[in-house]
Amino acid sequence: MTTFAIIGHLARTDGGFSLNDLPGSGGRMDVLCRCVNASLFLSHDLRRDADCYLVLLGAPAGPKTVKFSGASVRSLSPDERSAGALVKKVIDTPCGSEFREAADGVSIRKGGLERLMTEHAFAVLDENGTDIRTVQDLPAAYLLSDHLNFTEQENGLTGACPRYSVGPKCLHADHAITVLQNELDRRRCGWK
Amino acid sequence: MTTFAIIGHLARTDGGFSLNDLPGSGGRMDVLCRCVNASLFLSHDLRRDADCYLVLLGAPAGPKTVKFSGASVRSLSPDERSAGALVKKVIDTPCGSEFREAADGVSIRKGGLERLMTEHAFAVLDENGTDIRTVQDLPAAYLLSDHLNFTEQENGLTGACPRYSVGPKCLHADHAITVLQNELDRRRCGWK
């Protein structure tokens, strides 16, 4: 099982965003939708052994976490709008501090990174980290930020996490996930 | 300079598609838009040394080729809709067999793969090809297909091209471009 979690610092926490304007009205929800795609899609198939958490921190409702489970998600297409439509569908579901499945394979709960950190041994993807190709045992869970840097508070929470880099250039979060999935695929399949 | 070309077998060749339905009305234009993103975007920057050609083969106007030039493109954001809006803006521009710039850094001409093959020494990205990590000198131009396989005619045109694979899993075209860009970044920057 491989887990990705992406912090959406400005990502809208209710359904008051337009699928026609995911970057603006969604608080860069487009970034998060592309991360869902990169985490879960193979060509003509889904990665059933991967999960993707979106930590939504924008207005107006306070932190919420949406979980896309590769094992059970349905009605998900690779385009941004498809993942955005599923977020919009589940985001206003009444929920507490435990995940509630609000669409097939898509769950939601209140709360953000602090809780998630207690559940997964994350590595942080960070352009200043150790090259993933040189890491002997890559972990099962990875934390990324959206288009903004981690906040001081988030850096505090993740201070003990290993920090890995996917390459010499600073990439979008979804591109970093794609490169990491490729490295994991290679190792599992005995490629160099 | 790195060049990517993606064949859009069903991609609409006039502006009669909706930005709200790039997969359906656009003939999987969403795939092509993500390929533009993967070819040209770094985090908070553009790859000014990359070009991306979209070869549009769908209804109703016959083959057209749209060129996104990393060196000069403007008004391009990472979301699919942004690239789609630029395609829609240029697609109905009257043009002949030579590229005509119809928006900053976005050009269009009539014709498809046959002409493009005379201008670039493409390698074909193919899941059955040679592992890119084992190729000593990676070429400067890469050809990919959208969600459909290459046709027999296209396989005929590209029969003499080297065929390279980015990994053991069959990936979406945009993910393959991302992995390849990472391999090229590493080599240029002296990473393994």
The helix-strand sequence of chain A is EHEEEEHEEHEEHEH
What count of domains describes the coordinates of chain A? 1
Largest protein interface, residues of each chain: A-B, 41 and 41 residues
Q: CATH homologous superfamily of chain A, by name? A: SPOUT methyltransferase, trefoil knot domain
The CATH architecture designation of chain A is 3-Layer(aba) Sandwich
Protein architecture, described:
- The structure is a homodimer of 192-residue chains.
- Chain A is α/β, with parallel strands linked by helices and 192 residues long.
- Chain A has a single domain (1-187), classed as SPOUT methyltransferase, trefoil knot domain (Alpha/beta knot, 3-Layer(aba) Sandwich).
- The first copy, chain A, is built from five helices and ten strands, in the order E-H-E-E-E-E-H-E-E-H-E-E-H-E-H.
- An eight-stranded mixed β-sheet of chain A has the order 6-7-5-4-1-9-8-10.
- In chain A, strand 4 and strand 5 form a beta hairpin.
- In chain A, helix 1 crosses helix 2 (80-90) and helix 1 (29-40) packs parallel to helix 5.
- The model of chain A has no long low-confidence stretch (mean pLDDT 97).
- Chain A binds chain B through residues 19-20, 22-23, 30-31, 34, 37-38, 41-45, 77-81, 131, 133-134, 147, 166-172, 175, 178-179, 181-182, 185-186, 188-189, 191-192, and chain B through 19-20, 22-23, 30-31, 34, 37-38, 41-45, 77-81, 131, 133-134, 147, 166-172, 175, 178-179, 181-182, 185-186, 188-189, 191-192.
Which properties best describe this structure?
homodimer; eight-stranded mixed β-sheet; two-stranded antiparallel ribbon; Alpha/beta knot; 5 helices; alpha/beta; 192 residues
